Amino acid sequence: MTSHALAQLAPVTALLDQGIAPADVPDNPDILRGGWRTGAVHQALDLIGRADPQFAGRSFTAPGHTHLLLAEAPEHDCLLYLRLSAEGRPVPEEAAEKTVTLTLTGTSDVECYRHRGDIEDDHPWLVRTFGEESIYACHPGTLRTIETSDDGCQLVLSRTPLAPAEGSAPLTAYSYREALGTAQRILTAALPDDDTTEQVTA
């Protein structure tokens, strides 16, 4: 079932193998042409409905955002997380693994820094806002701050488990279910009216 749910997202996993060289572009980036968001929202809702409660202990919340492990996809050699807004102000952190993010709803504000001196000076060298139906990659070692809008919900793909940042806390089974319910409501609200009739609210 997970394989079927990820059928449309399979080309995105090629981005996980992309290096930092400008010429290193995956052979099949068709999804980058757009038009994928509604299908990806439906797939995320399907995965939410079948999420393993044991994923709670491998999900975590930190100042500014919560990461929910949604599915393991060994056939695609990746893990899928949902990232939601959370209480607190996000802080700069160093990426420990390569990730690809698909913005399903809301916005994702990203600030990147060359070194910690830039953080101390509050002088990011790259500032980008990614809106709905945006896709972006983050390489290991990147110093960045990610801020998700209150109505934001993003799919985050990684080859390896995401490393909780300093100050993070694992989710309990209850808080995991609560967060899944929040994600379900956000995603369902983002669908066209004629697409929401078959969705079941948590």
Provide tags for this entry:
4-stranded antiparallel beta sheet, disordered C terminus, 7-stranded antiparallel beta sheet, 202 residues, alpha+beta
DSSP summary, beta strand count: 11
Report the end-to-end length measured between terminal Cα atoms. 20 Å
Radius of gyration: 16 Å
- Summed up, the helix count is 4
Low-confidence stretches: 197-202
Structural class: alpha+beta
Helical percentage: 10-25%
Strand order of the largest sheet: 8-5-10-3-2-1-11
Shape: globular
Descriptive notes:
There is one protein chain. The chain has 202 residues and is of the alpha+beta class. 20% of the residues lie in helices and 29% in strands. It has a seven-stranded antiparallel β-sheet. It has a four-stranded antiparallel β-sheet with strand order 4-9-6-7. A hairpin with a 4-residue loop joins strand 2 and strand 3. Residues 197-202 have low confidence and may be disordered.
